[in-house]
Structures are given as structure tokens and as C-alpha cells.
Fold these 2 entries.
Entry 1:
Amino acid sequence: MKQPPGRRKTASKPNFCFACGPDNPGGMHLKFISDASGQRYISRFRLNKRYTGPPDHCHGGIIATILDDAMSKLNKLRDQPAATARMTVDYLKPVPLREPLRVESREISKRGRRLTRIAEICDEKGTVLARSRGVFVLLNSRHAFRQKP
């Protein structure tokens, strides 16, 4: 993944995220890159029949997963974890399987610990197939991810 300006790459722990984790053998393995401004994250992908909902189209839960993960990638801009507090999805058109797709996310606003973001899944022509708006809450990583005794 292209690092946002000013970020250093460090050794990382295994990533088992279902959507983007390269270490999850059953995951989607989405790869995100930041745009030139470092303010948007983009992934280009194709969905196989494993993600079928209606015939030849993607299951709505997988669509929501992709949109949520795209918005979550923006945490890298702040180098601090944030959790999804609320998310809406507008399913505008059926998302086809086996076709080139793109998901793109960007932040709309920050107010205190609350981050508002949007993401869209588009087809090869740029038609928006699904759109999401999410509210994320910044976490104190020392407390949120501490190991239990």
C-alpha cells in the first residue's frame, strides 16, 4: 500500500482482516492505495462467485463489508484506530460478479473524536452502484486493544 506522506513503514503484525488482510486465507484480499493527495483510498477488484447473493450479483452483506473497510482505511491518515459507530448503505444498482469494480473512500469531517466518511463502489464506466456514509469514533489504542490477562 502506498503510504500517506510523512508515514514510515514499520514491521507489522499478521493481518487477518476478512476484507483486506493478506494473512487471512479465506479473506477477500482487497488492496488499497492512497491517491496522490493522500486523502482518499482506492481499491480495484473483481468479485468471484463465492460472494453471490442474487444470481450473478454480489450479496448485500459483502457490499457493506467492502464499503466499511474502505472507510476504515482512512484511519491510516490519522495513524490512530477508529471504530465504526454507525453506517448506512444505499444499494443503488446490483453489483455484478466477475466485472472490474472500484471502491473509493474519503473523509467528510472531523468533530472531536467523531469522523464522518463516505465510500462508493463503481463499475468500470464510473457508475455508482453502492454508496455508504459512516461515522467512526477515534479509540485510545492503549485501552482498546490491550491484551487480557
Entry 2:
Amino acid sequence: MPQQPNPFIKYSNLAFQLAVPIGLGAWGGKKLDAYYNNSKPVFTIILSLLGIGAGLYLVLKDLIKPKQ
């Protein structure tokens, strides 16, 4: 019988799956805003929101996955 994973490890992994796309989106948005000399952080906002969507998709996909 396979051993069940520790719930703490499972849920901390979900936190990283949410944080990484948001962080990459914000970082990329700041770089694009600096490159195009935008006075307002348009790219940062857009890419951060896309990162939130991608992160939520990854987390929900893992939470809804049927147990094996």
C-alpha cells in the first residue's frame, strides 16, 4: 500500500504553484513597462492578472483532480 503524502507538503506545493506565475507576471510586466517607458504600470497589471489566472488554474486543477 503506497504511503499518503504529508498534507503540509501537498499544500505548500500549491502555494508555490500560485506564487510563481504571479511573480513571473509582475516581474515581466515591470520589465515591459520599463522598456516602453510607460508612465502607468499597464503591463504589470495585465501580466499580474494573467499570472493570477494561471496560478488559480494550476491550483484548482490539482485540487479537483480525482484521487487515485
